[in-house]
Amino acid sequence: MTKPGTRKAPCSTSGERKVREEAVLYHFRSVVGAMRDHFRTVELETGISGSQLWALAEIRNEPGIKAGGLAEAMSIHASTASNLIDKLEKKNLVCRERKDTDSRTVRLNLTEAGMQVVSKGPQPHEGLVRYALRHLPEDALAQLYNGLEQLAKEMQAKEAIELTPLADL
Fold first, then answer.
1. Which of 81, 107, 127, 145 has its CA 20 to 30 A from that of 162?
2. Is the dihedral of CA 58, 62, 64, 67 positive or negative?
3. Which residues are CB-contacts of 58 (< 8 A; sequence separation ≥ 6)?
4. Closest CA to 47 of 121, 129, 131
5. Can you tell me the distance from the alpha carbon of 94 to that of 127, in angstroms, rounded to the nearest whole number?
6. DSSP element (H, E) containing 107
7. pTM for the full model?
8. What are the pLDDT digits (tens) for 51-60?
9. CATH match for 14-168 among 1.10.530.10, 1.10.10.10, 3.40.50.170, 3.40.50.2300
């Protein structure tokens, strides 16, 4: 299929609406394809998932981060972050340290192997979508938010998936 034309004017006929719908589908496919390609490259080059690489990069950028801080930085649920940390620890890429007077406080740091993996991992570590969103102009981000919010409501999208890393969907 050739790339459908995109128009900025509102659709006034059913034919124009169909063209617009096809253009939106085309762009969704492009975004999903780019995400898939990036995550595949991450796995081939590092042996870990895209979300694991992102977690390693966050820990490298903030040594001693707590699990809750990692969850917040990645916009994921705390239990999802905990599972991610468990997997990284089993691969000897992160270590948990209890240094504070309160031994319940766990700080995360990279192991030497973790530093090597994150240093050779393809950029952007946080994935293409997060990277692109951060670089969108504010008005484009607001329009995208409004449109996707309406789309999610129309699809009755489940909110439980909202805290799952894109690489894990």
1. 107
2. negative
3. 65, 70, 73, 74
4. 121
5. 20
6. strand 107-110
7. 0.76
8. 999 999 999 9
9. 1.10.10.10
